[in-house]
Amino acid sequence: MNINAETRYASSPEEIKSWTTEQTRQALLIEKLFEADAVKLVYSHYDRFITGGIMPVGREVPLQPVDQLKAAYFLERRELGIINVGGAGTVKVDGEVLDINFKEALYIGRGKQEVIFSSKDAAAPAKFYLNSTPAHTGYPTRRITKKEAEVVTLGAQETSNHRTINKLIVNSVLPTCQLQMGMTELQPGNVWNTMPAHTHDRRMEVYFYFEVPQGQAVSHFWGQPQETRHIWMQNEQAVISPPWSIHAGAGTSNYTFIWGMAGENLDYGDMDGCAITELR
């Protein structure tokens, strides 16, 4: 089995002023998360956040510890959030088998030793998108469907950001230590997410863009509000968002994205807003 785990280091607003496009992409963009029967992980020094992808095709794929963790098993000191963005699949957690279908989530708390992923149909494999953070205690494993999510509708057709936010792994739905995950679906004809822009200096975030139609792309905006930058992204790619950075995307078509957060608190509304007219 192929396990690929890389490390990304934190950077300051001053440091990034000299970055080229390629340096920006190397530091923040996660270009490929899904490979047949492989585990792809990126360990970020922002809040020790791990982003990953597992796509079982011809076999079961276990989640094993990597060198960065110095742990006997992956969840020895961590919690894990999973959202399936592919075909139907299962996750076995210490012997308990849970069905996880398209756009459904699974939370696994600290201390679970065996986590094994599989697809129900190799011709339409599951794609398990993972976020993991350090945890101070263990909370129960729980599957979360879209019907069980806290759902919020924001934006408007007139401002091109009419969207549905599905809060799947958040403290209003189930207990977690610090991890929060959700999924935002832009309605047809809408291209903007997360406007008006904001930062939340007490938390970092990772964005995963999917359901981007073939031949289309998303321009992810980041940086300090007074000095923004952008990264062009394709379907099923993720980007690390530093806590001092805005995070917003504009697509050439509507799309869906998964947001994962970790840091100082579990307050979803803890944001430092920036007026659109103040962006530079």
UniProtKB/TrEMBL annotation:
<dbReference type="InterPro" id="IPR021120">
    <property type="entry name" value="KduI/IolB_isomerase"/>
</dbReference>
<feature type="binding site">
    <location>
        <position position="198"/>
    </location>
    <ligand>
        <name>Zn(2+)</name>
    </ligand>
</feature>
<dbReference type="InterPro" id="IPR007045">
    <property type="entry name" value="KduI"/>
</dbReference>
<comment type="function">
    <text>Catalyzes the isomerization of 5-dehydro-4-deoxy-D-glucuronate to 3-deoxy-D-glycero-2,5-hexodiulosonate.</text>
</comment>
<dbReference type="GO" id="GO:0019698">
    <property type="term" value="P:D-galacturonate catabolic process"/>
</dbReference>
<feature type="binding site">
    <location>
        <position position="247"/>
    </location>
    <ligand>
        <name>Zn(2+)</name>
    </ligand>
</feature>
<dbReference type="GO" id="GO:0008270">
    <property type="term" value="F:zinc ion binding"/>
</dbReference>
<dbReference type="InterPro" id="IPR014710">
    <property type="entry name" value="RmlC-like_jellyroll"/>
</dbReference>
<dbReference type="InterPro" id="IPR011051">
    <property type="entry name" value="RmlC_Cupin_sf"/>
</dbReference>
<feature type="binding site">
    <location>
        <position position="205"/>
    </location>
    <ligand>
        <name>Zn(2+)</name>
    </ligand>
</feature>
<dbReference type="Pfam" id="PF04962">
    <property type="entry name" value="KduI"/>
</dbReference>
<keyword id="KW-0413">Isomerase</keyword>
<feature type="binding site">
    <location>
        <position position="200"/>
    </location>
    <ligand>
        <name>Zn(2+)</name>
    </ligand>
</feature>
<comment type="similarity">
    <text>Belongs to the KduI family.</text>
</comment>
<dbReference type="GO" id="GO:0045490">
    <property type="term" value="P:pectin catabolic process"/>
</dbReference>
<dbReference type="GO" id="GO:0042840">
    <property type="term" value="P:D-glucuronate catabolic process"/>
</dbReference>
<dbReference type="GO" id="GO:0008697">
    <property type="term" value="F:4-deoxy-L-threo-5-hexosulose-uronate ketol-isomerase activity"/>
</dbReference>
<dbReference type="InterPro" id="IPR027449">
    <property type="entry name" value="KduI_N"/>
</dbReference>
<comment type="pathway">
    <text>Glycan metabolism; pectin degradation; 2-dehydro-3-deoxy-D-gluconate from pectin: step 4/5.</text>
</comment>
<keyword id="KW-0862">Zinc</keyword>
<keyword id="KW-0479">Metal-binding</keyword>
<protein>
    <recommendedName>
        <fullName>4-deoxy-L-threo-5-hexosulose-uronate ketol-isomerase</fullName>
        <ecNumber>5.3.1.17</ecNumber>
    </recommendedName>
</protein>
